[in-house]
Write a structure and sequence with these properties.
14 helices; globular; mainly alpha; 370 residues
Length: 370
């Protein structure tokens, strides 16, 4: 006689999902409490600050659209960290991919403009150039990891500094527009080649790019054999190799996809916001995207609402400066506290009794009857 086995996978899955939602929310609540204590030391009322942040992020139609504008590049840069995390990699070089993607897009636009290409062709060329530049940039970090054993965390960060140095060299030298005096920049790409706004909104098409990219990456990583292979490689590299999976190729391809997303964010910044490449490309979206990815637990779909939240926090900085005479960088303090809280909360997963995996309990077999 077989004994009873107490195993409720569906219940366990629901409880693990609840844990994945509750812990980040708890980390956010703890961060707000610490941030409130911080602003209180500056002589401000924490409740007034929270209300001001809400108004600056979501309180009016104008502020909400500003939040959407800031959330668009965050979605793309967060994917630069979230996708490699599926394989157990920590890539923090999204800022560099944004820079080289924007620089490549601006360079291609200027070259296409010299040939008097139609605007649709120019935008398509910018799109492809940014994807290729970002893919090669982060793909290099992935290749160094699998073929030379170099930490992808260190190499992607160092590549960011190289990308920024390359941007400064080109916009202050060969690609500099003589008309840009105080702020060296490339020549403008032209209004005809700019990325327009979504219908009925003062928000550019970069938001749609971000949402579509998150949806496609979710399907790729959670509903395809490629995503399953990536998850298996991230869970146990040795087992994946024994199963015949091309682990090295999976790492490089995933890093290239991640870099392509961040490079696209650079193209959006050039084509929809700045109209040219300059030091404004180094805006910190790549670093904030790391926080978004960790807060979203590296889930591409969860990246969308988390980007809205972090975009709203960033958008509220100006209002806090006017309302409470706090520095505009005050919101960066909140982001730093939130990042530390998220890292600390990683140790809590699986520690709660109600989400621990149930043990198999088998009854003793009944004595046989002759």
């Amino acid at each position: 006689m077989l004994g009873r086995v107490k195993l409720l996978p569906h219940t366990l899955l629901r409880r693990e999902t609840a844990e994945a939602i509750a812990i980040p929310i708890g980390a956010l609540a703890a961060s707000l409490l610490v941030f409130g204590a911080f602003v209180a030391t500056q002589g401000a009322n924490p409740l007034d600050i929270y209300y001001g942040m809400y108004r600056g992020a979501f309180g009016t139609w104008f502020s909400f659209q500003n939040t959407l504008l800031r959330a668009a590049p965050l979605m793309l840069t967060a994917l630069c960290t979230a996708l490699p995390a599926r394989l157990g990699l920590i890539v923090i070089g999204g800022e560099g991919a944004v820079v080289v993607g924007g620089l490549s897009a601006a360079s291609v636009a200027l070259a296409a403009g010299a040939w008097r290409a139609p605007p649709a062709a120019v935008l398509a060329a910018m799109f492809l150039a940014a994807l290729a530049a970002g893919a090669l940039w982060i793909g290099l970090a992935g290749a160094l990891r699998v073929y030379r054993g170099v930490s992808e965390t260190i190499s992607s960060l160092l590549l960011t500094y190289i990308g920024v140095a390359l941007l400064n060299h080109l916009v202050e030298g060969p690609l500099r527009d003589p008309a840009s005096l105080n702020k060296p920049s490339t020549a403008p790409i032209g209004a005809a080649n700019a990325l327009g706004n979504l219908p009925g909104l003062e928000v550019h098409w970069g938001l749609a790019y971000g949402v579509i990219a998150c949806a496609l990456c979710y399907v790729l990583m959670h509903h395809t054999t490629f995503g399953f292979a990536a998850a298996m490689s991230g869970g146990n590299v040795r087992a994946a190799q024994l199963a015949g999976l091309p682990v090295k190729r999976l790492v490089v391809i995933t890093c290239m996809l991640a870099g392509a997303c961040a490079g696209l964010a650079g193209m959006v910044e050039v084509a929809a916001v700045h109209g040219r490449a300059n030091a404004s490309l180094v805006s910190g979206y790549g670093y904030t995207g790391i926080l978004v990815a960790f807060l979203a637990r590296h889930n591409p779909l969860a990246v969308i609402p988390v980007s809205l939240l972090l975009g709203g926090i960033g958008a509220s900085g100006g209002l806090l400066q006017r309302m409470a005479q706090l520095p505009d960088a005050t919101v960066n303090v909140l982001q730093g506290i939130l990042f530390l809280a998220i890292l600390a909360s990683e140790t809590l997963y699986g520690r709660f009794r109600f989400v621990r995996k149930p043990e198999l309990r088998q009854a003793a077999p009944a004595p046989s009857v002759a």
